Amino acid sequence: MRLLSQIFQPIITIPKGAKIKNTEITCKSQKLLLECGLIRPSSAGFFTILPLARRAIDKLEDIINKCLKDVNAQRISLPCLTSARLWESTGRLDDVGSELFTVEDRHDKRYLLAPTHEEAVADLMADVGPISYRQLPLLIYQITNKYRDELRPKHGLLRSREFQMMDLYGFHTDHTCAETTYNNVTRVYEKLFKILNLPVYRVVAPSGDMGGTLSHEWQLPAAAGEDSVAVCPSCSHASLASDVCTQCGKETDICNSIEVGHTFILGTKYSVPLQANCIRQGSNPAPLVMSCYGIGITRLLAAGIEALSTESCIRWPAAVAPYSAIVIGPKEGSKEWSVHGAQETQGVARCIGDVVGDVLVDDRHALTIGKRMMMADRMGYPNIIVCGRHSVENPPRYELYANNDKSPLLLDINELMQFLRNGSSNNVVECVN
Amino acid sequence: MRLLSQIFQPIITIPKGAKIKNTEITCKSQKLLLECGLIRPSSAGFFTILPLARRAIDKLEDIINKCLKDVNAQRISLPCLTSARLWESTGRLDDVGSELFTVEDRHDKRYLLAPTHEEAVADLMADVGPISYRQLPLLIYQITNKYRDELRPKHGLLRSREFQMMDLYGFHTDHTCAETTYNNVTRVYEKLFKILNLPVYRVVAPSGDMGGTLSHEWQLPAAAGEDSVAVCPSCSHASLASDVCTQCGKETDICNSIEVGHTFILGTKYSVPLQANCIRQGSNPAPLVMSCYGIGITRLLAAGIEALSTESCIRWPAAVAPYSAIVIGPKEGSKEWSVHGAQETQGVARCIGDVVGDVLVDDRHALTIGKRMMMADRMGYPNIIVCGRHSVENPPRYELYANNDKSPLLLDINELMQFLRNGSSNNVVECVN
Other CB atoms closer than 10 Å to residue B119's CB: what's the count? Predict the structure, then answer.
């Protein structure tokens, strides 16, 4: 149980057309995250993640870690600085050039703030290799900051210059093995987006600068999206741009979308120049066949909010809301206050905490219940519980606004806990092993 | 339960005097972490954290997060890039100059890869301020990568150029309030080091580049340490350099030590130039009084290993060992193997996992038990369980080497679980709230 008054949440109101740190407010998630005191720009394209957003990201990381356990992926951390020499050897230093932040150390050695780590991880494999076929397939991943010197950072966390990303790398003896891994990992992606309750489409994509033989983008429809996806209303097949469904011939619906993930079979584009080899049974060393998988974590959080929210109220994927429930007690000086004070509210919150795990108490008792309910609704907590006028009845009853419903359920404490127990079991991450 | 054969742990043997990526092997923790496949240098002063070390760091972060909850500290993430302009305004750009990595973006705006965030966090407070006295004291922290372009990176994770750090910042209306917070947070430090079972000394220190009015270093005695601490054998009082104990007049023992934390009352050194103000009750806005607290996470892990290990075997603070227990089954072709195969071992591991939470099975059955025991001892798992010749008795009994003891206990499954239950309850983090 945590008291809202103790939480660092600098709420502001942004007038229409205003700029924050010289940045225009161009989309819903950016405006809501700023106004609700969840993020704060430090300079163009750089953001401080404030406590409530940090909690949401912690939950998202936790879900991703658990999902990746299912495919035996192991977490590591590569340095955020990659030697420029490695990117020269694969030719990407010139290809991606202008978007790279580069750094020189005191000995004039050049590094880049890596936007992705194919070179670094292939170099690691070369360093510890050649890898025996017995150790393959090998899946390693990290959750770290990535950097991209965007020409025009915009849309808040949707296109920032420092962002958090999960990047997973697969190593294989051959293409067949890489394809099996690719199928396993993309199933993990599908599971993750299902847990988050986000309608993310997987679409065949060009491999671009990354190279390789097969690639999918993972696109979430949202009006502010800078990409677009064509979805068949009949068979739900999705593609990047096609008026007609290639699967069933129907006319597609084209909508804006946000890329939240990208997956690749890379082949040997990185392992050949960096000499990352494996030893196959009874044959000579050969280049490792690589695959890679990215999920923009800060972007996915913002994209989820962009897709689900109204213009004025945040709506989270329930599994990553900063708190699952908020309890609002009576206003100071009210009849209910004179009976219970703040005790009742905290008692109810403790019971709820036992069921949902994390609960917030809005202890700003100088404010009316109505005012605090409005703010809780704006923040989008999945369960809002009010200890109002029915809390002095016998037995006491509480108003529950579940899943952002406008009309409350009136429940006694046992019914309330029962309801939340069932609700939270629906949100439970099933991939724990 | 996890199988050791599936873990990415590139074990190597480093010949005496050898260099790895042009770096000399100069201390025990560096050698052991490299040889046991826990870290890997990518270039001088930069390291990849491999899966088993990543697990240890996850545990350490988790303990730190839980301890900081006790003082109501809230986690945020500041960008790793700080505008150079902020450091100009406090004068530190020149003071720390040569150790800073700097970056220019495509618009020639200059940033630094922050080694610490006093300027960034004071700028945040100025941006959201002035802060009401009702919100103070406010404690916010982050766990992120920090950067220092060391002239001579050395000793592996003890002095690297990219490192993980917990940095906590306190904001107060006045010095008295800052002192109260300082005492609360230093008690958290003491609790943390007690959980880790590390004899860390708190010594009064000069404030140096950081400025401020009060400062302590937190020093862990270790032969490879680059600092030194004078400890009184009589009253245990410690200081940075003093032949005679200032508390009781006895002669001190001076030993090498590693700085694992540093704490400061900063006063208004940062809040004045950056205009981070608070509003005190019934008075005009005034500069916030700041305090700050750092713990080098990657350094603390290495320092713990440096202090506890033997020349050839890692010894962890038990609470952060990558796995609490490892189970070793019979060798293929042995009498026990012919009775049980691998089934028995995994069954035992599952039972143990229920008690200690995390358990590893050494499934490399082609190796002898002795060879695998030697490797498990070298890795320093706090509990090594052998399903050997006594596992075919009725009832089956298992050898337990607990806390790196050389002589085993011979226990049946119930005794084994009982023993581990008691042992693991001693290591439990008591600060969960």
Answer: 24
| Interface contact B40, partner A, CB < 8 A | yes
pLDDT tens digits, one per residue of A385-420: 999 999 999 999 999 999 888 899 999 999 999 999
Crossing angle between the packed helical segments A51-69 and A175-195, to the nearest 10 degrees: 140
CB of A217 closer than 8 Å to CB of A261: yes
CB B146 within 8 A of CB B165: yes
**How far does the CA of residue B209 sit from the closest CA of chain A (Å)?**
20
Integer Cα distance of B379 and B366 in angstroms: 19
What's this model's pTM, rounded to 2 decimal places?
Answer: 0.96
Q: Find all residues with CB under 8 Å of B23, minimum gap 6, and list them.
A: B41, B44, B45, B153, B154
- Determine if residue A368 is left, alpha or beta; phi over 0 gives left, psi from -120 to 50 gives alpha, anything else beta: beta
Q: Cis omega (within 30 of 0) on the bond before B115?
A: no
Measured in angstroms, the CA of B60 and the nearest CA of chain A are apart by 15
* Interstrand relation of A289-296 and A253-267 (parallel, antiparallel or unpaired): antiparallel
**R_g of chain B, CA atoms, integer Å:** 25
Q: Which domains does chain B have, with CATH numbers?
A: 12-308 (3.30.930.10), 323-427 (3.40.50.800)
Is A70 in the B-facing interface, judged by CB distances under 8 Å? no
Q: What is the DSSP string of A36-98?
A: TTSEEEEETTEEEE-HHHHHHHHHHHHHHHHHHHTTT-EE-B--SEEEHHHHHHHTHHHHHGG
**B161 Cβ partners below 8 Å, 6+ apart?**
A81, A105, B44, B45, B46, B101, B147, B148, B149, B150, B153
Residue B425 reports pLDDT greater than 70: no
Judge contact between B364 and B9, C-beta under 8 A.
no
Give the Cα separation of A386 and A411 in Å (integer): 11
Q: How far is CA B146 from the centre of its chain?
A: 14
Residue A180: strand pairing partners: none
Sole residue written with tokens 């270790």? B222
E strand or H helix that includes residue B410: strand B409-412
Report the 10 Å Cβ neighbour count for B393.
Answer: 10
Mean pLDDT over B118-139 rounds to 96
Task: Say whether B286 sits in a helix, a strand or coil.
Answer: strand
The token pair at A228 is 């677009």
B346-351's contacts with Cβ under 8 Å and 24+ in sequence apart are B346/B1, B348/B385, B348/B387, B348/B398, B348/B413, B348/B416, B349/B1, B350/B1, B351/B413, B351/B416, B351/B417
Q: Name which of A261-265, A275-279, B70-74, B251-255 the model is least confident about.
A: B251-255
Give dist(CA B331, CA B372) in Å, integer. Answer: 10
CB neighbours of B20 closer than 8 A, spacing ≥ 6? B14, B34, B41
Probe site for chain A from B6, B9, B43 (most A CB atoms < 10 A): B43
* 3-class SS string, B334-345: CHHHHHHCCHHH
